[in-house]
Amino acid sequence: MTLLPVVVLTGFLGSGKTTVLNHWLSRRDDLAVIINELGQVGIDQALVGETSVPVSLLAGGCVCCTVQGSLRTTLRNLFMARAAGDVPRFSTVLVETTGAADPFGVTSVLEQDPWLRRHFQLRSVITTVDARSGMAGLSRHPEVIEQVRAADVLLLTKADQVEAEQRGPLEAALAELNPGAERRWSEQGRVEPTLLNRGFPRRCRVTGQLSAVADPAVPPLAAASLASRHRFHAADLRWRGAVDYFALQSLWADLLEQCGPHLVRLKALVAVDKLDGPLLVQGVGGQPLEMSPLPSWPGDDDDSRLVLITDGDDPAFPGQCLAAFRTALDRIRH
Ligand SMILES: Nc1nc2c(ncn2[C@@H]2O[C@H](COP(=O)(O)OP(=O)(O)OP(=O)(O)O)[C@@H](O)[C@H]2O)c(=O)[nH]1
């Protein structure tokens, strides 16, 4: 029996996975997509544009560990639905991991589960690297190193915001971390969708950790980053009722200040006075918030919602930040 190919799209939080995924979905209708999110409230799925392809959401944990079992079940269900003709006969499954994922935790599911091994085959691991955060982005979180090392193809995203002289050092660092991977630059998610058809020889796992010990050639940035393995914690908020745009701005400022350097990712869909659709708010690390009004609410769910992901030792921290946000929100909400 022909095995169904699986492509894993990984890359750190906010590095541009969903943007690339949307570009591919606008050009291919032969995919089935599995989206994994750390938060419970499912904003990523809402950010995937109108599509006729099956999209499954695995929320509330990381597919490389806590929701690994759900990935197995989702893949089986997709296979069965395709065989029964309940979904279009997709040719490729695309798994978008959370930005904190260890891609090997995903690929090992395919390699170790006997049933999945008989029906699916890993075709490639494609990793987005946020070129705007450059070398600092590579060294801050060890997860990035793992994702880079696991890649068959490295997509250097946000090329529109990267100066020519910054490109060389970043490419050199990536080549050192993963000499076998192809590197491509991309702007606004524009990556040739035929990339999904290409297979690559499978390689053994090489972790940043092991190679830092065993490989004297390991770049110093990889070794340094392992000294402080970050933890990510997510908290969500949902509410109803529109708010004034300008009053909302001061809430973001307070939230960013409270999170300080611990802010890793922020995503929100917010009902704002005089707008038909929600305001999409996105934050990545210390980069300025991006705000764009959407023409309409995606799907049936028109609750405002916010996901906050922070790093550090305190799992309660993002929840505390959102509690303060909620209190301020209640003052301006109608
Ligand atoms: N200027 C610019 N911004 C980009 C590009 N790609 C993505 N972005 C922005 O970067 C932010 C994060 O992009 P996403 O595609 O949501 O990143 P992601 O990796 O899916 O994020 P998570 O799912 O939270 O890990 C958004 O605000 C995007 O608009 C790009 O090529 N250029």
TrEMBL record:
In terms of superkingdom, the source organism counts as Bacteria
A GO molecular-function annotation:
nucleotide binding
Please name the Gene3D superfamilies in this protein's record. CobW-like, C-terminal domain, P-loop containing nucleotide triphosphate hydrolases
Q: Which residues form the CobW C-terminal domain?
A: 232-326
An example of a Gene Ontology cellular component annotation for this protein is: cytoplasm
Which positions carry the signal peptide feature in this UniProt record? Answer: none
**Keywords for the protein's UniProt record, in alphabetical order:** Chaperone, Hydrolase, Nucleotide-binding
Catalysed reaction(s) here are:
GTP + H2O = GDP + phosphate + H(+)
What job does this protein perform?
Zinc chaperone that directly transfers zinc cofactor to target proteins, thereby activating them. Zinc is transferred from the CXCC motif in the GTPase domain to the zinc binding site in target proteins in a process requiring GTP hydrolysis.
Its family remark reads: Belongs to the SIMIBI class G3E GTPase family. ZNG1 subfamily.
Name of the protein in question: Cobalamin synthesis protein/P47K family protein
Which species does this protein come from?
Alcanivorax dieselolei (strain DSM 16502 / CGMCC 1.3690 / MCCC 1A00001 / B-5) (Alloalcanivorax dieselolei)
Taxonomic lineage: Bacteria, Pseudomonadati, Pseudomonadota, Gammaproteobacteria, Oceanospirillales
